[in-house]
Amino acid sequence: MDNWRNILDESILKDNINFAALFVLHFECLKDYIVTQVRDFYCDISIKDGELHSEETEKYKVEVRALEKNIENATLRWFINAEAITEDDYDLFQRLRKKRNDITHELLKNLNDGFNESDVKLYISLLELYRKIDKWWINQIEIPISGEDIPDDYDPEQVYGGQALVLSMINDIIWGNKKEYYKNLLEKLRELGI
After folding, report:
1. Exposure winner among 31, 37, 73, 187, fewest CB in 10 A?
2. What global pTM score does this model have?
């Protein structure tokens, strides 16, 4: 009977669809973030025919690509070598990828079965891993190479990259935590012509 409720009860179905969508969204953003940040750090970036191109350097091929065949795994190995993450984080990413693949390829089955507490814990671990890498990247790479003076009240624990901030807002809106806050913010932006 619970399986039918997962499909026929609108609120349960919406929660399960939201969970599936957010899990996949966050995983794909994490995967793209780790690969892109490191690739762009090492590679030669240029604009050709109005489009951004990234040409892999030999250093990138040696220090990142050579670490593993799969580019996400190779990049994660780079993060391990940089002491940004641990082997446990690497293993977590593999579990996250497996769950993402299961959600994506077996979506109807997942909606029918619903998601459980271990799925929610895995999702929270996904958010924490993204946060860990994002915070490390900003504090260890972006700030040191920016040449900017760091304010006295700077808190390295409270930094967020742009994509992480947008993902946080999406979570707040979907799960209803700050729906009204963002609705009011949108109205204020419209009033300002932004």
Report:
1. 187
2. 0.86
